[in-house]
Amino acid sequence: MANNTAMTRHEIRESAFLILFELAFREDETLEEMYALAEEVQDLSVSDAVKAMVEGVLLHKDALDEIIAKYSTKRSVARLPKLNLTILRLALFEIIYDDTMPDNAAISEAINLSGVYTYQEDTAFINGVLGAYVRENRPVGEAEDNA
Predict the structure, then answer these.
(1) Quick check: 17 and 87 in contact, CB under 8 A?
(2) Is there a single domain that holds both residue 68 and residue 103?
(3) Euclidean distance between CA atoms 42 and 19, whole angstroms
(4) Domain span at residue 49?
(5) Looking at the whole model, is its pTM more than 0.85?
(6) Helices first, then strands: H and E counts in the chain
(7) Per-residue confidence in pLDDT tens, the chain, 147 aa
(8) CB 3.0-4.6 Å disulfide test: which of 3, 7, 85, 133 passes with 80?
(9) Which of 59, 80, 108 lies at the terminal end of a domain, its last residue?
């Protein structure tokens, strides 16, 4: 996929997800090393939009993890599978920090990623955490279609 064509929002998100997930296992690597690895080994496009999403999630990781901890009532953040944690961080980043991304679209995209990369029960868990956050933190009219 490493080419010069414009990436869709979905492709950007999936590339960011894969880089963030890989980074969870390679915390000693720099971002530049991770971007190079993604392009070489995984054949991912690492556009400026992908970098912005990855770096945004990393910048807000602690705040995102606090939110996940609040809405994950049965599992601590430390015990969440890295796939689930990465999907939740990415979706919450989009919900909170990206005004161009509707909440319901961010949740839908998280569910799509989860359907590809995790177990069915994980998808329900991710949907529950994101839905609970949106219901509690958005005005009633804004949150109705999101969860």
Answers:
(1) yes
(2) yes
(3) 9
(4) 1-59
(5) yes
(6) 8, 0
(7) 444 468 899 999 999 999 999 999 887 888 998 999 888 887 788 999 999 999 999 999 999 999 999 999 888 999 999 999 999 999 999 999 999 999 999 999 999 999 999 999 999 999 999 999 999 998 765 544 444
(8) 85
(9) 59
